[in-house]
Amino acid sequence: MGQFISSHLGELAALVTAVCWTFTSLSFESAGKKVGSMSVNLIRLLMAIVLLGTLQYIRFGYFFPAHATSYQWFWLSVSGLVGFVIGDMLLFQAFVVVGARISMLVMSLSPPLAAFFGWLLLGEQLELSHIVGMIVTITGISLVILGRPGKGKRLEVKYPVSGILLAFGGATGQGLGLVLSKLGMGEYDPASATMIRVIAGTVGFAVLFVFTGHWPKVIKALSYGAAMARISIGAFFGPFLGVSFSLLAVKYTTTGVASTIMAIVPVLIIPPAILIFKERVTLKELAGAVLAVLGVVLLFSF
């Protein structure tokens, strides 16, 4: 068992990441509908700093990251801005507009996008199977979000187009952010690397809120007990556990393999969406989610 874990550490870390992101997406969807996605973004990052800092203090004796090079600080910070500020800002708003289940389905485009950015920035191999897998994934997503065209219409989208585009922006941010993380992390500790990304994301949101005047809404959000409880759960499973395990995954396996395993969230999220949020999921939507994940598997199975 120990040998199996050590030889498949990256793959197992990616699986844990997928489970964590299932919990965090549902938590943040609920909280975002109560206090707004922008407030949720900043509050969960502040919580993540406390959690990650405590972990580092227990492990290394210091709260904030140490011993990182300027190269690592730069690329991990850029990754944090791309992944947290841009990608997650779009994704969290998509949670509010179309819900976590549909948003995470569109997010299954993140692996092929990560493969493309990995090829572009890291020189990782990009083959015909990647293109085939992407086509299958898009087909699965289309099966869910597209309905039968009405009279006089060529195309009917079952969900708000704005929400779909927001989720696609989130997928792009996550794919690029993951590759930038691998570029900057090297042999650095994944939890400390996550802390640098979270710090950069927090600073990015803090500056953005100064210009948008969003700080009063953040302060008001702190008084909503139910929303804060959900944000706490999401912060624990998202920026703390989820992102740390995702960096552990890309450290011990390729970006593509890690992204493939992480992309099973659209299937994992269906049972809690039905049981907790009482969503009605049709067989067509279930088939589309499975097909989307199958496309991601095809990306890296040849």
Q: End-to-end distance, in Å? A: 27 Å
Rg over C-alpha atoms, rounded to the nearest angstrom: 19 Å
- What would the average pLDDT be, to the nearest integer? 84
Overall structural domain count: 1
Q: Beta-strand percentage?
A: under 5%
Main β-sheet description: 2 strands, antiparallel
Share in helix = over 70%
Strand order of the largest sheet: 1-2
**H/E element string?**
HHHHHHHEEHHHHHHHH
Judged by helices, strands and strand pairing, the structural class is mainly alpha
User: What is the approximate shape?
Assistant: globular
Contiguous helical run count: 15
Residue windows where pLDDT falls under 50 for at least 5 positions: none
The total strand number stands at: 2
Blueprint (SSEs and pairs):
Layout: H1 2-7, H2 9-35, H3 37-60, H4 70-98, H5 100-106, H6 110-122, H7 128-145, E1 146-147, E2 156-157, H8 161-185, H9 190-212, H10 215-221, H11 225-252, H12 255-262, H13 265-268, H14 270-275, H15 283-299
Antiparallel strand pairs: 1-2
